[in-house]
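Hi support team,

I'm filing this because I wasn't sure whether my run with guanosine-5'-triphosphate finished correctly. The job status page said complete, but I'd like someone to confirm that the output block is well-formed before I use it downstream. Pasting the exact inputs I used:
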Amino acid sequence: MPYDTDRARPVSQFAYDRLARQASTKPRIAIAGEFSAGKSTLLNLLIGSDLLTMQVTATDAPPIRLCHGADPAQWIGPRGHRQPMPEGGIDALPEHCREVQLFYEADILRGADIIDLPGLADPNRSDAGAHSALLGAHMAIWCTPATQAWRQSERSLWAALPDRLHRTGLLVVTRADKLDSDHERERVLRRLRRETEGLFSHILMLSATRGIEALQTRDTALWATSGCGELIRQITARTSALRKARLALLERYKVAEIAADPEDQVPDPAPEFEDEGVDVAPAAESTAGVGILELLRQAREAHARKEAEATQAQREVAPAPTVAETEPPIPREVEIWRNIAAQQPDFPGKMEISTMIEHYLVAISR
Amino acid sequence: MSQAVEATEKHSAMPSFGLRRMTAIQAELDALNARLGEAEALLGTDAAKPLLSLRKTLDSLCPQITFVGQVKAGKTALVNALSGRPGLLPSDVNPWTSVVTSIQVNGQRPRNVRSEFTFFQRDEWEDLVKEGGRLGEMARRAGAHDELAEIRRQVNAMCEKSRARLGRNFELLLGQRHKYDHFDTALIERYVCLGDPEEDGADRQGRFADITRLAKLYIDEPAYPLPLLFQDTPGVNDPFLMREQITLKSVRGASLCVVVLSAAQALNAVDLALVQLLSSMENRRVIIFVNRIDELDRPETQVAEIRRSLTRTFDSQSLGGIGHIIFGCARWAEAALTGGLEQLRPDSRASLVRVVEAVGNADTPVNAQTAWIASGLPALQEAIGTIVEQTSARRVVEHVRRKLGNLVMGAANQALARCEAGEAPRSRLSPDELEARLHGLRLDTETQLAGASGDILARFDADIADITAAFIDQSLLALTDAFAQGVAGREKLDPMFLRTRTRVIYARAVRDARVMNDAAGQSASDALNAIYGALIGEDAGNLTVEPPQAPHMPPPVSLGRTILIDMQTPWWKSWLGRHRTPEALEQTYRPLIEIEVKGITEDVRACIETALEETTAAMALFLEEQGQIAAAIAERNAIQTASLAETRRLVAALRQLHGRIRGESDKALPPAGAKVMEFRNAV
Ligand SMILES: Nc1nc2c(ncn2[C@@H]2O[C@H](COP(=O)(O)OP(=O)(O)OP(=O)(O)O)[C@@H](O)[C@H]2O)c(=O)[nH]1
Ligand SMILES: Nc1nc2c(ncn2[C@@H]2O[C@H](COP(=O)(O)OP(=O)(O)OP(=O)(O)O)[C@@H](O)[C@H]2O)c(=O)[nH]1
Ligand SMILES: [Mg+2]
Ligand SMILES: [Mg+2]
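And here is everything the job wrote out:
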C-alpha cells in the first residue's frame, strides 16, 4: 500500500510529542566512504582543526560525532549509556563503544552534527558499525578518491542504502590535486555523472590538502580552486533545507483522541521519521530491534498510565484548578522550540516552527 | 614504421640492476644448450630428432607474468615500464584496459607478426550476450534480480555500442583474428581500451574492444636475458561487471601473478579477496607490488607503516607465505626510462627526492639510475627472476637435463656394446630373454601405478566429502545466524574456507602423486640398470638411467573461480529478504551450494586424474625408449665400426658429457644482486 503523504494524520498526544521531538533534533550528516578516502581530513578542514586522526593506513576508531559546544568528550555504549572519555583517549575505548561524541565550537556544527564514520572495506574490521551509523543519518556525504573513483564495492554499498539517502546524498571526489590536469578532472567527473545517475543529488570534486594549505596561507584564490568553499555552501544549504523539510512534514500530524484500540488510530510507521535511530527517543535505545509499532504502543501505554496517576494525585492532593482546566498547558516540546528559536535568530526553521505551534494549539484546543 | 616503436628508440637502455637472477637462469639454459650441441656433435644424425625436440623445449621457455589488481592501480603503466616502453599500452584516469593484453618480450614469434588481436568465438559471445556469462548464470540461480538486470543492461549497452561502432553485421567478425606486422598507439587503442563516449576520437578508441578476447604484441628488449610474457588485465572491482570475469579467467596460464595495489589505499577488502583467491592456488607465486608511492606525502616513513599494516593483515589471514612485497612507482620508472625527471609533477619529484635521500644519503644524486631503483622495478625484476628460477625454469631445465642424460647414456652403452661385440662377442642376455624381462618390468610398473592411483583418488574422494559437508553446515549456520540478526552475513560465510581446505587436499594428492612417480621411477630405473648390467657387464655400472620427473600439477583454476558465495552483500540481502524462515532458506540454499561446491570439486578431481594418467603415460614412454636402446644393445648387430679405438674414444667422450650434464644439476645459482637487495631492505 503506498504511503499517503497528503492526508492529515491523527496521532495521540504522546506520539505527537515524540514525532515533534524527532523533527526538531539537529540533523546528522554522516561522512562515509572506504578507508583512506580522506573523510577525516575533510572533516578537519570543515571544522578548521586537526581533531581527527589522519593517516595513510586504515584508522581504527568508532564513529566519531562532532557536535557544537564545549562539553567534555563522551562515548556511548551499545545500550545508549553516555560515559566520559577514558584517560587514554580513543585508543583506550572498549570494543563495544558505539559512538564517540566530541564537542567543538565550529560554525558548521551549529546547523548539524557531523559524524566521521570508520572506513568501509577495511579487511580488518567489519562494515557493520559504519553501516548502521550511516542508516541513522539524515544525510550522507560519500567520499571517493579521484584517482580510483567509484568502484563496484562502493557502488554496491551505496546503492543498497535507502532512497532517502540517495536523494540528499553528496558525492565528494577527494584528492583532486592528484589528477594531472583540468581535462583529466573533467573526464573523471563526466564518468561519475554517467555512472551514478539517480544515486546522488550532487557531485563535487575537491582537494582537502589544497584547502588546508589555503586556510593556512590565507590564499583566497587557492581556496576558491580547492573546491572546499563549494562543499561548505552545499552542506549549509542542505542542512537548512533538511530542517525545513522535516518540520514541514510534522504539520500533517494532528493529535486525536485515543480510541479504545489505539492501533487502529495511529498511522505507523511514519516513513519520514523512521530513519531515527541513535538518540531520539530514550525508549528506542534499549529496545532496539522491536518494531516501531510496538514501541509506540508501549509509549502510549506508559503515557496513559502516567496521566492517570497524575490526575489521581491531583484529585487527592490539589484543589480543583479553575483556569487551567479550560486552557491546555503548553507542551514541553513547544517550550523547547521557543527557546531554540529565541536563542538563534537565524534558526533556519523559524517560520515553520511558529506556524507549527499555531497548528498545534488549534489541534489540542478542539 | 610505427609511432610507438619509433618513440621507444629514443629511450635510454633499461638498466640491468634487477636482471641478475634472470641472467643466471639464462646462463644455465645456455650451458644446457651447449651440452645439446656437444651431444649433437658426438651422436650425429641418429639422435638428431630427439635432440632437436629438447632444444625446442628449452627455447620455448617464456614465463608468463600476469598483472592483476583493482581498477586504476596502475597495472598498465607498470607493464609498460617493465617492458621498457612507457606509453605503449594505453592508460587513463578512468577504467580503461578492457582486454587481456600480452606483451611478449624477446623469444619466438610468428613470421611478420608484431601484433595480433583475437576476437571472441561465436559461442563464447553468445553465452555472454544471452546469459551474461557465468556472472549472469550465478545471479540467476541466486535469484539476484537487480544484479541480473544490471548485467543484462550492461550487456545490451555493450552490444549496442559494438553495433554502432562496427556496423550491424559485427557478429561476422567473431572467431576471427587480426594480425599486423606493426603496432602503434592508435592501433592498440582500437582493440584494447574501453573508450570514452564523450571524448573526441571515441569512435576509434575501443572500436573492437568489446568483441576482442586477447591482444598480443611482440617486442624485442635486449636488456632482458630471457623471453618473458607480461600480461596486463582489466581491473577488478570495476562497476562494469563484465571486465572482472575476463581478468579472473586470464590467471590460468600464469607462471606468477603480480597483484598491483595503490599506496593511498593499500589492500582493501577486494584486494584481500583477490590475494586470497590467488594464494589458494599457490602463494609462493604471488608478488605484491604497492604502486603509486609518489602520491604519499612522506613515503620514506609511510612505506614502512603500510608494510607493517600489510604484513599484519596477511598474517592474520594465514597468508604469511607471501614473500615478496615491493613498493614502487610506475611514474618514476617511466621518467627514468625516458630521462625526463624534470617532467615529473612537482609533488611526485619531491617524493622521489625524499626516497632517494632516505635510502642513500644527502649526496646521492637524483638521476635516472636512482629513480629507476626507487621505482621498485629492479626489485620487481629480481622477485620475478627468483620465482621463475624456482618454478618454470627449474622444471624445463630439469626435464631437458634428464632426457639428455638418458639419451647420452643410451648411446654410450650402445657404443660400448659394439666395442665388446667387436672384441669378444659374448651374449649375456638374448633378445628373447631381454624382452621377457622388459615385459615383466612394464607389467610391474603398470600394476604399481594403477594401485597407487586408485588409492590417491579414493583418499581424495573421502576427504572432499568431509569438507564439503563441513562447509555446507558451517554456511547454513552462518546464514541462520544472519537471518536471526537480520543482517547480511557475508563476512561469516566464508568461501575461502572451502578453497583453502580443497587446496590442502589437492596439495596432498600432488605430494602422493610425486611419491608414487618417484617410487615407480626408482624401481623401474633400478631394474633397467640391472638389465644394462646384464647386457654389457661391469662397465655399465657407473652410468645409470634417470626416471622421468613427476608431472607438473599446477593448482586447478576452478579453485580460483568466483562462486556464488563470493558475491557481494546485496545478493545476500535480497536472498535473506525473500525467505520467511531459516528452514525455507536452508531448503533453497542447500541445493544451490551443493551444485557450486560440486562444480569445484569435480574439476579438481579431474585435474588429479589427468595428472595420474600423465604419470602413467610418461613412465610407459620412458620404459619404451629404454627398451628400444636395450634391444639395440642385445641385437649387437651394429658392428660396422671402422675402428675400435674410435668407438672407445666415443664411449669415453659420451661418458664425460654425461658426467657434466649430471654434475651441473647440483650447481646453485649465484645470489641476487646485492645492490638491489640492500635497497629493498632499506625501503
Ligand atoms: N593529496 C591529497 N591527500 C589527501 C587528501 N585528503 C586526504 N588525503 C590524505 O589521505 C590520507 C588518508 O586520509 P584520512 O583523512 O585519514 O582518510 P579517512 O577516510 O579518514 O580514512 P579512515 O579513517 O581510515 O577511514 C592521509 O594521508 C591524507 O593526508 C587530498 O585532498 N589530497
Ligand atoms: N602518480 C602516479 N600515477 C600513476 C602511477 N602509475 C600509474 N599512474 C597513473 O594512474 C592512472 C591509471 O593507470 P593505469 O595504468 O591506466 O591503471 P590500470 O590499473 O591499468 O587501470 P585499468 O586498466 O582501468 O584497470 C594513469 O593516469 C597513470 O598515469 C604511479 O606510480 N604514480
Ligand atoms: Mg578517518
Ligand atoms: Mg590498465
